[in-house]
Predict the structure.
Amino acid sequence: MKIATFGISHETNTFSSIPATYKEFENYGIERKEGIFEKFKDSNYTIAGYIEASKDLNFELVPLLFAQTGPIGTITSDAYEKLSNEIFSMLEKEGPWDGVLISNHGAAVAEGFNDMDGEFCKSIRSIVGNIPIGITLDMHANISQKIIDQTDICIVWKTNPHLDAKVRGYRCADLIYKTIKKEINPKQSISCPPLLVNIVKQFTGQSPMKELVAQTNKIAKENKVLDTSIAEGYPYSDVEKMGMSWITITDDDKQLADNLSKKMSLFGWSKREELNESVWPIENALNHAVKNYKGPKLNDDKNTIAKNGIALDDIEKSNHSKFGPIVLMDVGDNIGGGSSADSTHILDVAMKLKINNILQTLYDPESVKQCLTRNIGDSITLKVGGKSDSLHGKPLEVTGKIYYISNGKYSDEGATHAGFKFFNDGKSVVLKTIDGNTILLTSNRGGNTSINQMYFNQINPESFKIIIAKGVVSPRPAYQPIASQILLVNSPGVTTSDLSFFNYKNIRKNMYPFDKNTNYQ
Ligand SMILES: [Zn+2]
């Protein structure tokens, strides 16, 4: 049994001014053939699940090409043509195939194709013909009917932060294997109500997402049901397919799949108000943190963190759970969502309020360069952050000592969002300011999804009062183990939770929460 695997994985922020060119994909790393296995074999990403299934079930998995970038703007037609054509010609030349396993993100938009993922699946179907096609998508996928029509098995990750990418990849591979062996005859169905879940309500360890996922897990165990998925969707993509969706795959019962997808989506619809509640203003969040900080945890105590593949729950109550830093999630500067990584909005307010003992990162290659002309221990005055655009605050003047310099390359074998293992922040500098804050200046827009980012730079995040993490959910696996509280902050920026900031033109007209009177039944 011979199965091809490949993917073009992109979360397209159509409001971003940085187009996803072929060069952007190249910079991120386009992997071919064995390079794909090298990159993912020890990770917890989808393809690691495909690899493991191929060993357990004893089929030949043939890697072709895998391309991704960070969540920047629309994919240029040149990039899509080049990447997809290379995959298509590999598929044609190296066949025949018994099956196909795709690893896409599911929220990709290319010039000319508002539904790049659907178009991609359609082209693959026309090349490989009537053989089982499986696809595994990120929980932020905006999933179209076309994807469901052109594939046999569509599996979506079920945890946010995404800790089950490998597990769900394995599931997809297993179902495709059984389909090839004719042990099952999958029928899938999708329901896409005109509904989005605000980015600040997407953590699957808290209500209402927790209940919605639990329902899909319960239904997945019912008779004749092979799998269920729930996708949160990606709200920064101005396309018709944007929004939540529910998928059911049954063994040879389309009507049942239709009914169950509908049932799950109606439960989601009933939670629409809670799915769109707002979060803390900056000043309130900072004042709350100062008032509620009780000191560091003792005796190396840590909150329980999910094992790989298991959903992360909220911070559990324990004798030490009230101790530890208070983590403020900088929602407007969600690096994983396509933001600038250099927002100074929260730090600015904190400095004005004279709040200190804060830890945060700032993308600022210019300041890093200035520091590199000096030595460790030197004092320096810099204008940090706020340089990428006009949306993420002004550069702030800070004076401090250069505490540490690194190459910014670290790894994490523990639970990280989407299961990635290797990280590269570029040349990085730790600055300890005279007003008592620590700023990690980076040369790449690295993100805050691994706590090793701090340990690697000789920083003990446990010792801070406040940690400003750039993201919404993805920093949770990194910081929840040491935090006493995690607050989501309604900060401005390109990934703000305030959706009135965006000028949507192409989404469905009756989307909740934009149309509060809209109906779905
Ligand atoms: Zn995601």
User: Anything to note?
Assistant: The mean pLDDT is 96. The longest strand covers residues 396-406. The radius of gyration is 23 Å.
